[in-house]
Every structure is written in structure tokens, then in C-alpha cells.
Amino acid sequence: MVAASSGTQRPPSAVRLLVGLLAVTAVATVAIDLLNWWYAPDRDFAMAVRSGWAMLRALGFVILVWQVRRGRPGARPFGLILAVTTIFAIGRLVVPRSGVPPLAGALGFGLLAGLCVAVVWLLYRSPGVRAHLVRHPARLVFDGGRPAWRAAPPRRPPVAGWLLVARVSAFTYAPLMLVPALVSIGVLVDGRLGATPVVLGWLAVGFATSYVVLLISFFLLRGSRWARRLLVAFTIAVVAVDLPLCWWLLGVDGLIRDGTPLVSAGALAVYGVWRAGRAETTMSDGAGSPATDPE
């Protein structure tokens, strides 16, 4: 097994490959988004909002580079959900409302999807990357009564890796709700002013979702079983609110473009909770030890 790199050691070759791949993916995300905008037959307000959200993915990959270079364990779940949502964010821009997508856009989407799959594969299947992503953030600790600022594991008990996946997935609920809510502002401009209270309520629920997820995740990472059940129930509630609003205000096209990413994130969160519970059951049966990383 490759030892985790310190601040003076050269990272393993797999880590350097992953960092380079993430940089290429960030650039490709922006380039393909601009390409889709160039070829789009209708550059309206809805596409501008969705394109802006897709382009923000480049910033996410830059943050992921920072996490990988510093060996943060949270890079795995963050990279997984970032890759999945990026594929959906770009994919919904490639397909026009009518007709077939342009060849350049389809090829660009295929390239980006391949890059995202390669990123996830390295994060979860490379022994060198796995051994590198074990460093914790620095914090104030007391060694022999003397304060020191150094890397140290968190005080909370170890958390199953799939719970981290569920937590990161749940944090995407708010932006995935706010994007279609912002898109629906164009509906008001088109003359459906009667829907204004609904749109404002949708925006309010989207903002409130982030705080609810933050509260749930606080207890989720501290081993509370009720927090897992609450996260599953809250996921169902979010989907039950968002999908009808997408259909009513944005039509079937909006339901597919904006509802599918949220459903995928919710499914990944619920799956993460289930896998974490399954791993703990296996451990209690004496078949192994709790895994801190999803396999």
C-alpha cells in the first residue's frame, strides 16, 4: 500500500494523474457549456440559468483538486456526486426541445461523461489514490498540555463512507431545486403572473432545504439512527414537492431536464443510507469491520 503523502513528499503517480484529469474536466465543462450555448437554437432565460449552473461545475472541480492535493477523505463522496450531477447538468443542455442534438454537442457530452467516469474510477478504484486520501484538516490540539496546530482526526466516531455520500448528495437538493425555480421566473415574464406566489414559495423552500439538510447531517455524522430515517423521509418530501412544480410550471420538458437530476441525487442519498446500514449489520454479525470508504 502506498503511504499517504506529506507536505514534502511527491504525491503518487495516480494522484498526479487524478489532479491533471480534474483540471482537464474543469476546462472541458466550461468549453462544452459554451459550445452548447453557441449551437443552441433558442438561447432563452431558461437556458441561461441552466448554463450558468452547469458552468459552476468547473469551480466544483477546482475545489476537488484542492481536496485531492491535500489528501482529504471527503474528496471521494464529493467527487462522486459532482461527477454524477455534472453529467446531468451538461446532458440536459445538449438535447434541444425539438430535433436531434448537434454532433459537436453530442461529442462534447460524450467526452465529458468519459472524463467524469474516469475521475470516479480513480477516486474509488486506485490504490494509490485511496492511500493518499487519508489526511485530516489541521486543528488545535493539546499534546502534553501544550497547544499545537496540526492535522488530527475529528472527535466524532468514524463515519461509514456511504453516509458521507448520502450527506454530500443531500446538500445538492437546494441548488437542484433553485435552478428550476429560477427558470420558472421566465414563466412569470411570459404572462402567468398568477403563479408568482408559487414561484416565490418554491424559492423559499429551496433556500430552507439547505438549512434542514445541514441540521440533519449534523446528527447523521454522529451516528443517530433517527437522522438516517429523517433524511430518507425528507428526500421523499423534496422530490414530492419539486417534481409536480417542475411539471406544472415548466412542462414535461422541465420535468425531465430539472426533475431527473434531483431524483438521481435523492436516489444516491437513500442508497448511501442503505449501504451504510448494511455495512453495520455485516459488522455486527462478525463478518468484518466498519468501512470508512464506500466500495
- Count up the domains: 2
Alpha-beta content class: mainly alpha
User: Over all CA atoms, what is the radius of gyration?
Assistant: 21 Å
| Proportion in helices | over 70%
Q: What is the residue-averaged pLDDT? A: 84
Low-confidence stretches: 1-7, 287-292
Q: What kind of sheet is the major sheet?
A: 2 strands, antiparallel
Q: Tell me the span between the first and last alpha carbons.
A: 17 Å
Order of H and E elements? HHHHHHEEHHHHH
**Count of extended strands:** 2
Shape: globular
Description:
- The structure is a single chain.
- By secondary structure, this protein is mainly α.
- The protein folds into 2 domains: 1-155; 157-295.
- 72% of the residues lie in helices and 4% in strands.
- The chain contains 11 helices and 2 strands.
- The protein has helices at 13-39, 45-55, 57-69, 75-94, 103-125, 127-132, 161-171, 173-183, 185-189, 196-220, 225-284, and strands at 138-143, 146-151.
- It has a two-stranded antiparallel sheet.
- The longest helix has 60 residues, at 225-284.
- The two termini are 17 Å apart.
- The relative contact order is 0.12.
- Residues 1-7 and 287-292 have low confidence and may be disordered.
Which properties best describe this structure?
disordered N terminus, 2 domains, mainly alpha, 295 residues
